[in-house]
């Protein structure tokens, strides 16, 4: 009877441990993060607001890298996808954003998959990152979704764009906050068909912004209700030599910070970066790709660039995402940590040890009792 009771207690302990590590820990960690508060001192006085200013709450993540049919063990796939599912759904439930952006590399093997495999990918993505209206979700393509520029084909780009209703350069405006979503691989500037389409889209967006601002000619252009400096969202970071200057809690480990970036591989080219800044005059740039966090400020143009790390344990032990509050003349962004994989592993090890110890403890007492009071014939 005592053994049966001890075994039931052991199973109960295992259930509580699994509940903590696979469900509760996400809420415990994510409740510690909240939307940042807008600082009135940072308001852009050059932007005309016409009275009240509406806040737009955004959630930004990057590099989910859903494993495909060719790489990764099935348990690796199961473990990482459960982590991202619980992280994402818990964050959405707690923070209830108005809009969500995923900054590329949604899939790990998107550029290799057949149409059938890509359709299966889309179903998994829809299950993991499902959101209910009125929350909106937008994505930009990454090199693992459609390939680097040398590998990107019109078919791969069209397949991704059709699935996610995107363009090489897309424009999204909500509550007078303007977002420009850019295909980084189309910023090569070599005259390829996709690059030409991206440049055309980019010129259209830039012209609309200038027209709304009251600069230039508005012939044939319908202006926006009001002007505000746009926010760029793309997969590649803007041109930089390395991550050496990045000092955020989720930045790259020291051994990687000094590695030099190659233009068009780890970051946009210098020419493409300068072109985007010149044409769009953004206030914020949000990027991914490196799997590590970074913040850069451009004092000449007063632009803030945030690099968002990978959302998956497969790429980073301490993943984070960002919560942002935007208005037409102000913004604030906050990095939110997710549970660390090493923490979850440590909890499992300690919890199993404690459960095993408690399970065997009553058996040992029972054995000692029997030894001191032997049965007599």
From TrEMBL:
It is a multi-pass membrane protein. GO terms for molecular function: hydrolase activity; metal ion binding. Residues 57-292 form the Calcineurin-like phosphoesterase domain. It is found in: Membrane. Pfam families: Metallophos. GO terms for cellular component: membrane. Coiled coil: none annotated. The chain crosses the membrane at residues 7-29, 345-362. One of its GO terms (biological process) is GPI anchor biosynthetic process. The keyword Transferase does not apply. Its cofactor is Mn(2+). Keywords: Hydrolase, Manganese, Membrane, Metal-binding, Transmembrane, Transmembrane helix. Belongs to the metallophosphoesterase superfamily. MPPE1 family. This is Metallophosphoesterase 1 homolog.
